[in-house]
Amino acid sequence: MKDFRFLSMALGLAMTAPGVSAAELALSIELPRIDVAEYHRPYVAAWIEREDRSVAAQLSVWYQLDRPAPSGAAPRGESGTKWLPDLRQWWRRGGRDLAMPVDGLSSATRPVGTHVLRFDAGSRPLAGLEDGRYRLVVEAAREEGGREQLPIAFDWPPAAGQTLDARGRSELGAVQLQLTP
Amino acid sequence: MSATKPSLSAALAAAVLASAPVAHAHKMWMQPSKTVLSVGQWITVDAAASTDPFVRDHRPLGLESLTITAPDGAVLAPANPATGELRSSFDLRLDQPGTYKLAMVRDGISASWDDAGKRGRWPPRGQPFSADGLAKVLPPTATDLKVVRMLSRLETFVTAGSPTATVFDEPAEGLAMQPVSAVNDLYADEPAQLRFVIDGQPAAGLVVEVIADGIRYRDAVEAMELETDAQGRIEIAWPRPGFYWLNVGTEDRQGSAEAPYRRLSYTAVLEVLSP
């Protein structure tokens, strides 16, 4: 009896909470192996733009975090934030307004391989994303390397399960956007 | 503006032009190492005059007329100022978020006259003008005396974080630029709008010359000439990313009793990024 009451309460909350859906957005980003003598992990940012290119949601940014200097040692010379403007589109699409690091958004650069990020409709950064047509943009910039951005257009919220693919030519490999209603 | 007597003012302007030596055979420029940065970064800036903008092959610009204005209005001192044979340079750390203005303003009076077919000028370059001084050197036989105030502005801009427009708040005498598009938010795939003003009023019908960096590596200067509209605006479609040199000049009769003519010039250096 107790268990049933708890369950119905939980269901009631889930069903009555305004604007909450179970929709999910999963983003997978492949960082390709690049055969160069001096390889640095790329800076990578992902965000969602409206059709007028204004930013609807910041999803993620990977950059070189400042390591605390070992005790007694002098602080390291250059901060990793120095190179954030090299993510040129991300920088103008809101990156320059952020005070890094940002909880839940920024994290360390990642190694070669495929990385998956998941976001729920009900929580930040997707909470409050209005119904409409959007563009997901993934941008990568690498020291001693190049820069590449990949856009993927999508509708939100998704009417049906959908997988949208894009493939980079230099700094990005396969980028996949998986939408679950 | 002598709007009531357009033909007269045009004739006077033409007279000033005709009597002037070739105004700026060499183009003055300042070039920052970067214009779009995060807070706390250093830039280094070169300043010189040369036939082609950004080619360091003629003479340095003196840094005594340099004024650096921070986003909050503070005037900053350049770090490591130096003057070499071909260019001067200085450094600046961008500790405040926003747009900084780096400006060189030159303001001086020069007299010229005709003396039995020979053109006389005073004062020599770099020396101040005074009416008394002119009276001492002006030959009694001189005719066609013209006293001209020359007011020129050379500006460039750098931004840490998001662009701001506070450095454009202060009213500027003579020719100046008021951005419509932010000056450090320029991309090759987006036309930019700029507005020019004279003493704060729209500078209509002036021709703005726009030259892209890299002249040395192409066969022609490929200067663009854009005429300002009634609001003093131009729209620039950037042919490619890179640094650009913009110049506009004019003459008018809005000078003082001492120097009735003004020769006005405005130059900006802007960086356009790839999208």
Automatic annotation (TrEMBL), chain A:
Keyword Signal belongs to the record: yes
Pfam families from the UniProt entry: DUF2271
Keyword annotations of the record: Signal
InterPro entries: DUF2271 (IPR014469)
Secretion signal, residue range per the UniProt entry: 1-22
Protein name: DUF2271 domain-containing protein
Species for this entry: Sinimarinibacterium flocculans
Upper taxonomic lineage: Bacteria, Pseudomonadati, Pseudomonadota, Gammaproteobacteria, Nevskiales
UniProtKB/TrEMBL annotation, chain B:
Origin: domain of life: Bacteria
Pfam families listed in its UniProt record: DUF4198 (PF10670)
Extent of the signal sequence: 1-25
InterPro entries assigned: DUF4198 (IPR019613)
Keywords: Signal
The protein's name in its UniProt record: Putative GH25 family protein
Organism: Sinimarinibacterium flocculans
Organism lineage string: Bacteria, Pseudomonadati, Pseudomonadota, Gammaproteobacteria, Nevskiales
